[in-house]
């Protein structure tokens, strides 16, 4: 069922809801997951683990993801929808994902492998492969969610408050 005169399949998520509703769900997912990740990111930084720069990047990205979701949630809950409320997410998310990608690529995997005894390097390599596959899956989900928020931005910019 179409919710407005201008509604086409372009404005629907794969679950059948409107992209503005989908972007609200995505914003809540980002906020909750960021808030749940924040304590571990902060404690890793405070613990002076040997990868301090990586932990600082993790904490910064967590805070950025959290802050980029808030304008979408506030705009939708206050029914003051403007296309500007999507901009923090649309700007911060790709930058944060690129930083995360470079951090994952340049994470000292050689350093990790050199600290593992020879008889355990096979296990460390398996963990590295599994972690890499998980990262690719999460990256794919983030790109898909970004496309939903971008379509919500386009919809609100084009049609304003109507839904």
Automatic annotation (TrEMBL):
Membrane-spanning residues: 12-31, 51-74, 86-107, 127-149
Keywords: Membrane, Transmembrane, Transmembrane helix
Taxonomic superkingdom: Eukaryota
Protein's recorded name: MARVEL domain-containing protein
